[in-house]
Amino acid sequence: MPLTRPVALNRSFSGKVKRWTNLLFQSKTGTAGLLIVISVVFIAIFADLIVPHPPAENNLTNMLKPPAWLEGGSWEFILGTDNLGRDILSRILIGTRVSLLVGVFSVVLAGVIGLIVGIIAGFYGGWIDSVLMRFVDSFLAIPSILFILVFLAVFEPSIMVLIIVIGLTNWVTYARVVRGEVLSIKEREYVKASRSIGSKNIKIMKQHILPNILSSFIVISALSVATTIILEASLSFLGLGIQPPDVSWGAMLTDGRNYLATNWWIATFPGIAIVITVLGIIFLGDWLRDVLDPKTQVNAKGGPK
Residue 159 phi/psi, 5° resolution? Predict the structure, then answer.
């Protein structure tokens, strides 16, 4: 008898994993998104080991070499070189790490702040809700790009500074969504029953509120990583993001914009890297939304029940 509960839990967990796996591989976009995200994470972790050339090494004798398949190209520099003779492929691989670090950790920071504020505001209501939501409204009244520009004007741009400033500007979205979910969940019978038997508020939030909002939170977070990567690239393109000698896809676009007519590969390949990465995350996020959203019931064949 003591083994009955753990065995049941193991079977339930294995059943969910099997169902998720079936749904994932039956979704072409979900599978493509997963493969892209795994590849991007792998490159970000092992970029130092797989780059063919030092990404910041200038070599004017190899400047503006075209990709290997074009006339004048060399397989030593598969995607060509930029105006300073730096290998485009190596810089794209190293730039993957920067984009992923900023995208993931800024979303984690924004998500944690928004989750805490949203749960407290929605659960307690009253004057606490009013004060917190007015604070959220005041944040929404300030254009996020203006806040970022002011912050970056005060502090020297770096990876850590970008993570903090983007996280501090994006948490309000999480707070509003989480608050709306909590307002609905706290009125359900099991929450009222838990409160009636004397459960503490912290325990109710931990056992009943948090597990029921995690699905929406995960989906929003996954999709926010994609928009954050674009925002980081945009800031770096404007010269306000990652600074040399660190490598950023946005900074690579800036380096190549004056050469689009003659040496198109300098800006084209970093742009393709941004598009593929963002699409992969969006594809995976859409699949997560379909699977985790309780309003969208999906059966093992991938169609609505």
Answer: -60, -45
